[in-house]
Write a structure and sequence with these properties.
With 302 residues, the chain is α/β, with parallel strands linked by helices. Helix content is 41%, strand content 15%.
Length: 302
C-alpha cells in the first residue's frame, strides 16, 4: 500500500511523533506507523538495539538516537531543539505506546510546554491487551504502572489502592512477580487475578485464578514481560451508600483520602479504640483487618 502523502508532508515540517510499536509480534504495527518512521528525520528510542531490529525488519534506515531515563533531560533538550529547527522526530519506547510507563512522557510534557503539538500514531499497548484477555470487568479500570520497588513507599502504594472497587492493572518485572503477588495477597486480600506473560509472542501465557493460585503457579523461574490485572475490592454490605460524613466533611485534606480512611479517621477522633475502629471499617469496606488496623495505629501516632 502506498505511503500517506499527508503524513510524509507533515513529517518534513518538524513534528514530534509519538509512535506505538509492537509489544512482541513484529507484525503488530500499523501502516501509518511505518509511513511515519520512513518519513521522519530522526528516531528517538528507549533501547536503540531493540528499535534497530524493528526498523531493519521493515527495511527502514533512519538515524537512531537513545532517549531513556538516564539521559532524558539532556537528550530531551537536544531533540526539542531539532524539532524547533524544522526536523521531525519519532519517539518510540521498548514496546507499545510511548508515555504510558516510560520516560517518553517527559519529552511529551516538555514539548507541550514549548507550545508544540505532538502527534499520536496509535497502536498496541500491553495494559489494554491484558485487560481484555483477563476475563475481569473492563469498566471501570485504573492503570497503576510499576509498584515501587521497596520500603515504605511500596507499602503505601498497596494500602492506598486497597479500597478501589475498579479493576486494577499493573506492570511488573519477572524477578519481582512473586513478591508483588505476596504483597497483594497480604494487603489486598484474596482476589481474582490474571497474569498476562509474553503477550503476542510465541510463548504467550494468560493465567487466570486467585492470587494464591497465581503464587503457586509462578513458583519457579519466570521470564518475559508481565501485565497483572486484578479484581477490584468486592462491595461491602453497605456498598453503594456514601458514608454520612463524606459529603459534609469540612477538612480539605480528607477529600484526598480513600473513603475507608476518612471513616477510620472519624471513628478514631470520636474516641473509638484502634481495634474497634479497624474492625468496623474492615467489615464495612471488606478490607483485610490487618491493613486497616496498621493504618489506625499510624493515624494515632500522627
Amino acid at each position: 500500500m502506498p505511503s500517506n502523502p499527508e503524513d510524509e508532508k507533515q513529517a518534513k515540517e518538524g513534528k514530534l511523533y509519538v509512535v506505538s510499536t509492537p509489544i512482541g509480534n513484529l507484525a503488530d504495527i500499523t501502516l501509518r506507523a511505518l509511513d511515519t518512521l520512513r518519513a521522519v528525520d530522526l528516531v528517538a528510542a528507549e533501547d536503540t538495539r531493540r528499535t534497530r531490529k524493528l526498523l531493519s525488519y521493515y527495511d527502514i534506515h533512519k538515524p537512531l538516537v537513545s532517549y531513556h531515563e538516564h539521559n532524558a533531560k539532556q537528550r530531551g533538550s537536544e531533540l526539542l531543539e531539532k524539532i524547533a529547527s524544522g526536523k521531525s522526530v519519532a519517539l518510540v519506547t521498548d514496546a507499545g505506546t510511548p508515555g504510558v510507563s516510560d520516560p517518553g512522557k517527559l519529552l511529551i510534557e516538555a514539548a507541550l510546554k514549548l507550545g508544540m503539538e505532538p502527534v499520536a500514531i496509535p497502536g498496541p499497548t500491553a495494559l489494554i491487551s491484558g485487560l481484555v484477555l483477563s476475563g475481569l470487568s473492563a469498566q471501570p479500570f485504573v492503570f497503576l504502572g510499576f509498584p515501587p520497588a521497596r520500603g515504605t513507599e511500596r507499602r503505601r502504594f498497596f494500602e492506598k489502592h486497597a479500597g478501589l472497587a475498579m479493576t486494577l492493572i499493573l506492570y511488573e518485572s519477572p524477578k519481582k512477580l512473586a513478591k508483588t503477588l505476596k504483597d497483594m495477597l497480604q494487603i489486598w486480600g484474596e482476589r481474582k487475578v490474571a497474569v498476562a506473560r509474553e503477550l503476542t509472542k510465541m510463548h504467550e501465557e494468560i493465567f487466570r485464578g486467585s492470587i494464591s493460585e497465581a503464587i503457586a503457579h509462578f513458583g519457579g523461574e519466570v521470564r518475559g514481560e508481565l501485565t497483572l490485572v486484578v479484581e477490584g475490592i468486592a462491595p461491602g454490605p453497605n456498598a453503594g451508600s456514601q458514608s454520612h460524613l463524606e459529603p459534609e466533611d469540612p477538612n480539605p485534606s480528607n477529600r484526598e483520602l480513600p473513603a475507608w480512611r476518612i471513616e477510620l479517621k472519624t471513628l478514631l477522633l470520636s474516641g473509638r479504640s484502634s481495634r474497634e475502629a479497624a474492625s468496623a471499617v474492615a467489615g464495612r469496606f471488606n478490607l483485610p483487618r490487618r491493613v486497616v488496623y496498621q493504618a489506625a495505629l499510624a493515624m494515632k501516632k500522627d
